[in-house]
Amino acid sequence: MPFHRRHGAILLALALTLPLYKDARAQTSGDLTLVSEYAGRGVALYTRPALQLRLEHDTAAGWYGGAFASPVTLDNRTQGQLTAYAGRARRLTSTLSWDAGVTRNTYLRDGRRNYHEFYAGVALQRASIRVFYSPTYYGEGRSVYLDLSGAYPLTDTLRLAAHVGVLHPFAYDGVAARDSADVRIALVTDVGDVTLQAGWQARWRTYLPDFPKPSAFTASASYHF
User: Fold this and answer.
1) Which of 26, 112, 116, 224 has its CA at 20 to 30 Å from residue 65's CA atom?
2) All domains of the chain, ordered by start, with CATH?
3) In this record, what's one Pfam family (predicted)?
């Protein structure tokens, strides 16, 4: 079973649904997700309930590519976000795998905010760590984002997901920027092909002052196909 199905808690703790390991067979999969609010890395990108779509194709050699779509609000303009990503994931041992790739974020009505990121990470059975580097984060300047995520089973059907992220923006136009951090904790369960999650999120400082702060409560329902 693919990583995003076996560890939906980690998936739901991230802004982008990028798996860290896949089965050694070609397959196409997707998720249709209803979120209470589209938030990521400590900022609210869409403050109302939103319907999001992710499609992905994996190859037997570990290569994968996919796309993610969601409504967003940038600079008081509601528009669409399209994210394309591609990479490769391979298992190192029975419990350890690595993953690396690139993403491209495109905003349909505000191309100034477009940016891409390079990422690399490793995953154990219940935890993962990833580093993202962007030359022009949200059209601003260079940044590095560290993502730590994990999931712990509480019962046969319920698990606890946790995520901590730290963003280090480099100087913008010669002005030093402050580091920021975000945290999310959620309860996650699967009902057939549907993953349900509800939890709490918060941030420390902000690197994008024009973006609203996300709500403390977060919830979503994802249908996997």
Assistant:
1) 112
2) 3-224 (2.40.160.40)
3) Gcw_chp
